[in-house]
Amino acid sequence: MLLKRLTVFLAAISILLSGSWWATHAARDSWISVRSKHLFVVGNAGEKEILQLATRLEQFCDVVSHVFPGAALNERVPTTVIVFKNDDSYRPFKTSENNAGYFQPGQDVNYITLSIESHADQDSINIGFHEFTHLLINTSIGSAPPWFNEGLAEFYSTLDLNNDRKVVIGKPISRHIALLHRNSLIPLRTLFQVDYQSPHYNQGDKQSVFYAETWALMHYLISNRGGQREKQMWKFLDLVKTNVPTEQAFQSAFETTFEGLENAPSLHSARHLSNDRIQPGTETKARNEISDYPGFRS
Fold first, then answer.
1. Is pLDDT above 60 for 293?
2. What does the CA dihedral 261, 223, 270, 122 come to, rounded to 10 degrees?
3. What pTM was estimated for this model as a whole?
4. What is the C-alpha to C-alpha distance for residues 215 and 245, in angstroms, rounded to an integer?
């Protein structure tokens, strides 16, 4: 499945960047580009939207590099962001109809693709932050399991830049809250075993629940016990990457069983978030606020 997606994506991008495609479509669409510190952003969206996205992604990179351990970009491998004006324009280049955006790493160039069109409570900035998190994960720690890759990407996708001076990380995502209320939860034992070929990662409703639950899990791990759970998470990830069996790695890192953590009151609450506990659209977790951030650039 992953190889098929990669083949489709690379074929689509090759067509997009080919001279014949440009000759056919240039008269129909106005394509513009902007080069920022870390990115080459090109698209048929409006100039204002492309400039705003490029600026926000650079700001996001600057902020997250201070709070995500080891986050850094490989300056030797450039990143191209392709921004489509709407879903109709983006559809021929999607690897899956479910995609709101896509990140594809490469030895010579990294690609991020997305549409400027909003999706429910997702806009292009949220989608861009999600895909850029995949880029940071890939360049800082390499291959990562889906629960971590998607959970952290969803967690950082809500990063809010208030008046260009105040940063809030970890805001609630209403669609995930609604899904977690309507659906049975995936047991942690299963969640940590999901790979990139799994139905939980690729199939419709299962995929949606997987994204929602990994977001809730990441919210709990990063925001609880004064950072203790986050340190345990990194230990767990390190052990798994050295091929320690998942259950053994989990018990060594978290000092409990899957079921023990699953039944912890704080995690149970995180997996059953409700609007009377965390109001969507409000600032939460003062620990994750950065006021008058000194490295912030507009």
1. no
2. -130
3. 0.82
4. 23
Under the banding of pLDDT at 50, 70 and 90, the label for residue 67 is: confident
For the record, the structure tokens of 7 come out as 């083949």
The rounded distance, in Å, linking the Cα atoms of 168 and 290 is 7
Structure tokens at 147: 């629960």
Find the angle CA(271)-CA(190)-CA(127) to the nearest 5 degrees: 60
Domains of the chain, CATH where assigned: 1-142 (3.40.30.160), 144-298 (1.10.390)
Q: Residues of the chain with pLDDT > 90: what percent?
A: 48
Q: What is the reported pLDDT for 74?
A: 77
Evaluate if residue 280 carries a pLDDT over 50.
no
Contacts 24+ apart (CB under 8 A), 207-211: 207/98, 208/179, 209/179, 209/180, 209/183, 209/185, 210/146, 210/150, 210/186, 211/150, 211/154, 211/176
Q: Is 144 helix (H, G, I), strand (E, B) or coil?
A: coil
- Chain-centre distance of CA 139, in angstroms? 14
Question: Which has the higher per-residue pLDDT, 22 or 114?
Answer: 114
Name the average pLDDT for the chain: 80
d(CA 120, CA 126): 11
Contacts 24+ apart (CB under 8 A), 232-236: 233/148, 234/69
